[in-house]
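pasting for the record
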Amino acid sequence: MVATASRKSVTKHRDNRDLMSTQSVRWDKKMSNNCASALLVYTMMQIFFVLSFIETKGMSIAPYFGLVLLVAIIIPFCRKYEKRWENFAGNGLTSQSLAARFRKDQITLWILALGLPFVFIAIIKAIGAIF
């Protein structure tokens, strides 16, 4: 009898915990993690792809300053997304609405993180073709 009551209370506790975990998604935390990951991927792509195109012969430090500039350009955009999702926490939107907005912002963030290095390479090639 004690075992049965114990199993029921454990099951009830797990059900309550599962219900709470599905209702309280930390969208701001998820976006912050996405921003950090996207920034890391963006920086690695800048290092491995863009630097190979802008390196000059000799000991020029200009390509490395360019790399720092390109990384510094994306940081305010990532911060904007994080701030936006911190503000959504108290808006009272439905979880479906938040999920849709999150997915849209997540896709936009990753398209920028994965696409901008190739845009910079195209710009560098175009400038190189002109001069």
